[in-house]
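Chapter summary example.
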Amino acid sequence: MEDIGKVKIFSDLSERSLRELQEEIKYIEYGPEEIIFQEGAPSFGFYIIHKGLVKLVKRTLRGKKQILKMSGPGEFIGETTLFDKGAHIAFAKTLTETKVGFIERGNFFYFLEKHPEIVFRIFAKMSEEMKAFQSKLAERSYNSSKERLARFILRLGKEGIELSRSELAELAGVSSKTAIRTLGELEDRGFIKMRDRKIEILDEDSIANLATTLPISLDKNIII
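The structure predicted for these 224 residues follows.
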């Protein structure tokens, strides 16, 4: 996915505007498990994912990690620092072979001056994600670890996304021990089958009955 016109917020731009934007993009390719940017590093722009899957991860002072979101083709990473020129508050790491397009902040602002409608689309997208993060925070307070894990098991299993048990724990906000115990229990009950990093769902209805649901509908290539 290198056609910038396939990115939702740019989809109705003219061919001339798309070519102009395309000229500002620098493409970078990464292998699995590579860092795109580090937590605390200065931000000079943002990235559009064209291929692959990327996780955005926050470290605590004690070294624990929380996966804030996972993003696929057509999604952005690093956009939260676009307007405040701050440092990255989390690090971005690839899960698969990945290709991103980097757009430098100053060049993008110049483009936005001619296309101010894009600013509102970016804000709308960031607002949706903020609501999803707020819902996820409430989920951690009111729902059990099993319910939270089931939500992600359902999503990852349906899409064939492979995560380690520790990564699944970091995504759901539970301990690795809890994730391993819960996965074992669900496997014993015949709901799932673990194949290395891949989760095969054997009883989708039972997993769906366990799972919580976020009240926010996000684009298909983002998981929060």
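To summarize the output: Residues 79 and 220 are 18 Å apart (CA to CA).
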